[in-house]
Amino acid sequence: MRTTVGIIGAGPAGLLLARLLHNAGIDSVVLESRDRAYVERRQRAGILEQGTADVLRAAGAGARLDREGLRHDGIELRFDRRRHRVDFPALTGGRSVMVYAQTEVCKDLIALQLAEGGPLLFEAEALAVEDAGTDAPRVRFRHEGREDVLECEYVVGCDGFWGVARKAIPAELVQVFERTYPFGWLGILADVPPSHDELVYARHDRGFALLSMRSPSVSRLYLQVPDGTDAEAWSDEAIWDELERRFETADDWRLERGPITQKSVTPMRSYVHEPMRHGGLFLAGDAAHIVPPTGAKGLNLAVGDVVTFARALAHRQETGSPELLDAYSETCLRRIWQAERFSYDMTTLLHRAPGATGFEDRLQLARLDRIASSRAAETDLAEGYTGFSFG
What are the strands, taking DSSP E only, across 106-256? Predict the structure, then answer.
């Protein structure tokens, strides 16, 4: 097989890239190791920044997003039994976010790709990227019981942290920056309408809690738990009791309970791989960077990567200049490090570290009080949350 761009991974990054390239008249082939059903039910992120939603609309994938997604114009911070709402449009010149699950983004993009785009091969396992440092990289893959080779001008690895793309970059060229946090998130899905119409981020002496949602009838909630926690060790009643404690306020707000349909524990880490390009191989999304979920940045960073690549390749096709492709890694990393900073700030602002002292507790409360009382501090949070430029 031969194509211009070989895309490894049919998550939102790989699928969106295929769509952007199709719209620019550039051919591609997408290889996905899992079957379609798995990709369309894989639970991941649910917050789309303003820029991400705009890109999906421009790509022709915004109809169901606008019909079924939930626009959010702010978040609520809770601390010391107080409530403070951060008004995004008022602080950012009108920007907001959308609650729309990654599973739904993938369904929309898969439907478009199968109807209009190039080949999308499910159960096609990428085995290796060969000749990555040249201008003619190849992807060796297995599909329908046979090994095959996809010959490309460019390969984009959207295959996540455990994928093969990153491994094709020689170790002596790589710098890795990472931080592992000593806690995780116990997350639940519950068949109960959200107890608040916007996300609630709670800092509590017992640990962080987040109230989110997947739809008007399904709640998504999280608890900070020690690293290595077994989700099944928590009974449903214990989860609801702990959520109630951490969301407690001085007014009459109440947390609604309902049947828990899913529970799992997500580890927390920060990770950046530099560079994001080697010859004809480009990394995007979790293959190159991971952020703790507190800042709601993971999916949005991946979108920024593929938008940057698609623009750069279209520029190369139109002008013959490789300037934007050559700057791919540097361009992406400027945005990525800002998102890493924001996610780290949100994580350390709201989570109580094991063994935290009274001094550290008071610093957290002082930081939160500063956001609640200073328009400048509040604006910085709102700008970071609604998204950094893809430029």
Answer: 120-121, 124-130, 138-143, 146-151, 154-157, 175-190, 199-203, 209-215, 218-226
Our answer to whether residue 263 is catalytic in this structure is: no
The answer to whether 344 is a known catalytic residue is: no
Q: Catalytic one among 22, 273, 297, 351?
A: 297
Query: How far apart (Å, rounded) are the C-alpha atoms in residues 24 and 90?
Result: 35
**Catalytic site includes residue 315:** no
Establish whether 100 is a catalytic residue: no
User: Is 351 in the active site?
Assistant: no
Residue 38 pLDDT more than 70?
yes
CB-based contact 29:119 (threshold 8 Å): yes
- Report residue 391's pLDDT band, with 50, 70 and 90 as the boundaries: low
Choosing from 154, 222, 328, 385, the catalytic residue is 385
Give dist(CA 132, CA 282) in Å, integer.
9
| Closest CA relative to residue 29, chosen from 132, 169, 126, 163 | 126
The string of pLDDT tens digits covering residues 336-369 is 999 999 999 999 999 999 999 999 999 999 999 9
Token representation of residue 68 = 């079924």
Q: Catalytic residue among 100, 201, 222, 328, which?
A: 201
Say which of 12, 194, 292, 293 is annotated catalytic.
293
Q: Does the pLDDT of residue 128 top 80, yes or no?
A: yes
- Beta strands 97-99 and 260-274: pairing type? unpaired
Rounded to two decimals, the pTM is: 0.95
Active-site residue identified among 12, 22, 72, 137: 72
Cβ–Cβ contacts within 10 Å for residue 376, how many? Answer: 9
